[in-house]
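Weekly modeling sync, notes
Attendees: S.R. (lead), two postdocs, one rotation student

Agenda item 3: backlog of single-chain predictions. S.R. asked that every request posted to the team notebook include the full sequence so nobody has to chase files. The rotation student volunteered to paste the first one in as an example of the format we agreed on. Action items at the bottom.

Example entry:
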Amino acid sequence: MENTQRRSTAGAATEPDDRPGTGTALELLIHGVGGTTPQEMLDDPRTVRITGDDTAAVFRRADDADAEREPGRREGPVPEAYVWCNLTSGNGTRALWLLLLPFMVVNLAHWMRPTARGRRRTVRLYGLLVRLAGLSLTVLFVAAACEVALDLAAWQCAGTYACAERHSWLGFLSPAISGDGWWSAPGRRLALAALVPTAVTGLLWLLSLRTWNAYESQQPMSHEPEEDTGRTALNRPGFWYGRRLVARLRAAHTAAGLLTVAAAVGSAAARQDREPGGPAVLAVLGVLLEAVLAAGACVVVWVVCRRGRTERRVDGTLDRHLVRYLPLAALVVLALTLLYAGWERPGWKSAGRLPGDAAFGALTLAQGLLVIVLAGVAHTLHRSDPDRRAAIRGLAGPAVAMLACALGGVMSGGVSQRVSDWLDGTGTSMPGPPVLLTWQASVIPPLLVLLLGLAAWLARRAWHIARTERAAVAREYADEAADPGRTRRIASVRAMAALTDRGPRILAALSAATLLLGAGALAGALATDRTPGEATRGSYAVVHGAAETAQALGSWLIGFGFIVLVAGGRRAYKDASARRTIGILWDVGTFWPRAAHPFAPPCYAERAVPDLTWRIATWTRATGGRLVISGHSQGSVLAAAAAWQLPPSTRRRVALLTYGSPLERLYGRWFPAHFGPEALGSLHQEVDCWRNLYRLTDPIGGPVRLPGDDGPDVDRPALRDPLAHGRTATHPLPAPILGHSDYRADPAFAEERRRLLARLRPQVPAPRNTDEPPTGR
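Predicted structure, as returned to the notebook:
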């Protein structure tokens, strides 16, 4: 790749007498999931970087680098490739982001809000509830780290001779092995172990700050806010710049994590000080500490509830005092708590579990109530403006929030159980993790059974669809020789592609089952205060056997699941073919800004959308030429988002060509408030023209279902795939079934691009002024 050559943005580098002519036409190509190289996109081994950096850039063929100066040199449009795959791929260590999957999932729930009319307070309540659910996940994540480091390692194992003897690295914390050494006091053990969850919290804060600076700190192009019709928020100037909210949430979640560690350490010491005969001063300090922790928790909740996203303008304001001093104050409280816990307390011995088991039950109950209330709010919004295409009748957001909470609970329970099994080899010397976490880990096998049942249902549906599609395939290729085997193969691919539309039913079943099983686990833990195996002892043999099996399998499955998750994520980052399988879900999750959780993986669109907007606006302003935004798969979503961000005068001068696009099939159904029928319809009316290509064999792309108004419908009839059923004079070798790939190889692509360019009319270039960016003013 000849990417060492650096050129300024085309059309903004010469004097007025060298201004490009108005006959220039540009095709801005945006790739989709899985990424590609500039050479593949431009079909030329010699490419140059026109603008951008190593993370995301615009490339052209070397021969087209100065095409604007010679507009009559070539017949077709000048192809230009925007390559953004480095925003979502990289070295294998980035697969560790998958361990924060619950944070990404709950952030998705924020954007799945149903369409609403005149319900501003209800919309705000929806966002507030999702932010609170995100806060509960942070507390749960840090509490799980506290459970492992403080309770299982420092309190239980170090306080038990048999366990500490097996793990020599804990010997200096054991009173029996170290001979009542200085670190063997329970409070000091807890203070030392608290460094682990504190470091985890600090790492999350650092990752959030660094990824913001690397991905999301790009200033969008300024333009006057448009009339807010309620169709979509994607055209608001500040939509792709959430600096203020992310900073506030980062400060609040960091403080929440630190206060959680302080509560885990301080509550044990305060409980000991309340025992009769203890020092009165320490007892008073314990009461004061608990009051400070309660006040800190109230402040954190107030910060999370106080302000949502500011989208109607580019809000560069930063709540500096809050962002700086809230985490610092929490850190000071934690330091004082560790000092208080490490004070000498003669006669204090660690026994049983660390006080604070009820915290996990309270978190689980709070999350369940939040999801139920969120479902009620979402139902109210959906009823105010029903959308028959919306997934789960507007309840997709609560369903996804439920899965996020379930993921957090299952991961916490599974990890705690696995660490407990590792530390306590005999299974008899330690009490183990809180009973609720064991119950939650035991929920995994029933969920897997449900997943197997749903997979069997999907297989049955695919079989029925394939039988129906055989007749359709035979009619479509009636002019070619019959080949029953080929017909079955094409019908099967179409049937598998159609299963994407069954996603809402799968999610509804999973979320409902998760809510019921989670409620059952909470009820079982509270009612029995014993593990599932112990609670069913003395009952029917089959019941007891099933409970013990679920309990044993649950902890092993979560460990295996972690390995699969990290290995699969690592492969997805390094292997393009794996990214095409896994990447769509990951790229959908990281497309949206961090509005509910600051520790979610970074949003690549906050870099990509401003890139595209600036490129389109500066090129059209400088050249007055015709421009077609050509987006494939996820690239079509970026194309639509960039078009919404353009000034209205510029938006009316570009055309959209989308192919393999999930705009309606995935985004329109799952994110109706932003990509619903009215939003896509408004985009169709505001750009010059739009055409969409799709195939029945494509599991991701589909029609956008918009009428043509004054021109042709947006959707071209489904493309033939394969192009030939058997061997023909045009295709002497068997034509492949392309599915989601190679749309540009279809003759229909060039035909539709030519028609779009014919509809566009060049404009007179604006006066040259390279010092000022284009605005819509």
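Discussion: group reviewed the output briefly. The two ends are 40 Å apart (CA to CA).
Action items: rotation student to repeat for the remaining queue; S.R. to check formatting next week.
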